[in-house]
Amino acid sequence: MTTLLGEVGKKLMDRWATLVVLPGLLFVASAVVGFRLGHAEALDVQALATWVGVRLAVTGAPETGGVLLAVVASSLAASGAGLCAAALGRVTAYLWTLSGERAPLRWLVRRRQARWRRANERVAEAIGAAVDAAVGAAGDRAVGAAGDRAVGAAGDRAGKGDRAGGGAGRGAAADAIGGAGADGVRAAMAARERVGIVEPSHPTWIGDRLTAPAVRVNARYGLDLDSAWPRLWLIVPDAVRAELTSANDAFMAAARLVGWMVLYAALGLVWWPSAAIAVVLAAAAWMQARAAVATLADLTEATVDLYGADLAEHLGIANQGRLDRDTGFAVTAALRKDDVPAPRPPSLAELRRK
């Protein structure tokens, strides 16, 4: 047990040093340089070297106590800066995932929804143009029937909103057309996905991308991901948990970069090179956050696809070895424990009879 606790403590110290102390020391050094040089001598290395030489000459050979005090003071300052950046990162992650229920965020959501719907209409137009081209080139009833089926399948997704389809239908729609105009369809769907993989409900792309798995899983399987996810987490293999944790850590690291960006931007008020550093950090944080969020969302959806049936089996719900709408609804009903159960979604057979 002592050995285990020692290893855990060592890992925690390594993580603390990597995420907090080392970046904090870099910021403290930048702050010392910035306050000494200011805007006028911002890049004057000679002036900095002269100042350091004068300080060393004045203080002389430092005593052990003085060195220890300087190390402790630097470590405390670095830790304080690191904790401040981490706190700002938490705030950033919260702001990135805010819902758009209230003004002025609601106005941003409406603007993004309008962009998404315009892109969605272009998807429908691209599908229609591709089908027309395929029918005209082949001039045969069989191709025409295939085109009609493509319009029926893809048009329902694109023309009616496709809140849950998003990028998942990109390859299927193009393949149904038989290759004619597939590039145009894929380009239109990619443009729509750049706005949002589902119809926006958040003021930011990051917020929508993180909630997209819940929307798509509910539409495809009738499964409430909010109630199912904690149970899924308990039954998936350690390797899956590790991948999900790694993606989430990458997202939080991007949020911390925003925290450091804020600190360097504040330092830029007295030393302009720090403002340039802040711009670089902002760009890096945004790119890393988008990549990490996309990975985390894809992994979340993949976890449901691969282990949703296992969750149903653990709950004693019969299934065919894969997750479908009936199974997903049964899992949702078992997990949510609502006083008033939600209505059961109609099956495909029932929809066809109507």
Would you write up a description of this structure?
By secondary structure, the chain is mainly α. Among the domains are: 95 residues, no CATH class; 99 residues, no CATH class. 78% of the residues lie in helices and 0% in strands. The protein is built from 13 helices and no strands. The relative contact order is 0.09.
Can you tell me the overall shape? extended
* Major pleated sheet: none
Computed CA radius of gyration, to the nearest angstrom: 28 Å
**What's the pLDDT, averaged over the residues?**
82
Strand content: under 5%
Helix content: over 70%
Distance between the termini: 65 Å
Total beta strand runs? 0
Instruction: Assign the structural class, choosing from mainly alpha, mainly beta, alpha/beta, alpha+beta, or little secondary structure.
Output: mainly alpha
What is the count of DSSP helices, taking H or I runs of 4+ residues?
Answer: 13
| SSE arrangement, N to C | HHHHHHHHHHHHH
Q: What oligomeric arrangement do these chains adopt?
A: single chain
- Poorly predicted regions: 141-145, 154-163, 165-174
Transmembrane segments: 16-35, 67-88, 262-287
Organism: Nonomuraea soli
Protein name: Vegetative cell wall protein gp1
Keywords: Membrane, Transmembrane, Transmembrane helix
In short:
This protein has 354 residues and is mostly helical. Among the domains are: 2-96, no CATH class; 105-203, no CATH class.
Question: What is the topological layout?
Answer:
Elements: H1 2-37, H2 45-59, H3 64-96, H4 105-138, H5 141-159, H6 170-176, H7 182-195, H8 205-221, H9 225-235, H10 238-267, H11 272-314, H12 325-336, H13 348-353
